[in-house]
């Protein structure tokens, strides 16, 4: 992958959004960031841009506990939509929950690349972005 990455953060916590945005924007491999405060806004964006892969994110950092549409609901809708999307989107669950049931549920969803417990440090972002951009 030689082109720059588009990253989406789907999380209702403005502090997490701010910190994540600050870390991620410092990477040269990142071209654009999308911020959504709930799963519904993110899903609406995917539906609206389904036929324009240049507007779709390469990576989604997805929280579980959000208002309107939580992360699990988002994933269920994404699974239904996935076959219509011509772009591979990598999804990381990023949550403050360290509940073993959440880990197990995430592992059972093929579309989830990894489950990361907050906070995420710069090294973790570096590892993720380097693995995608190579």
Sheet with most strands: 5 strands, parallel
How far the N terminus sits from the C terminus, by CA atoms, comes to: 6 Å
SSE string: EHEHEHEHEH
Q: Helical percent range?
A: 25-40%
Count the E strands: 5
- The CATH architecture is 3-Layer(aba) Sandwich
CATH class category name = Alpha Beta
Looking at the structure, the CATH topology is: Rossmann fold
Q: Which class of secondary structure composition applies to the elements?
A: alpha/beta
Q: Number of folding domains?
A: 1
Bin the strand percentage: 15-25%
List the total number of helices: 5
- The residue ranges in which pLDDT falls below 50 over 5 or more consecutive positions are none
Average pLDDT level: 93
CATH homologous superfamily designation: Response regulator
- The outline comes out as globular
Order the strands across the largest sheet as they lie in space. Answer: 2-1-3-4-5
Task: Please tell me how large the radius of gyration is.
Answer: 14 Å
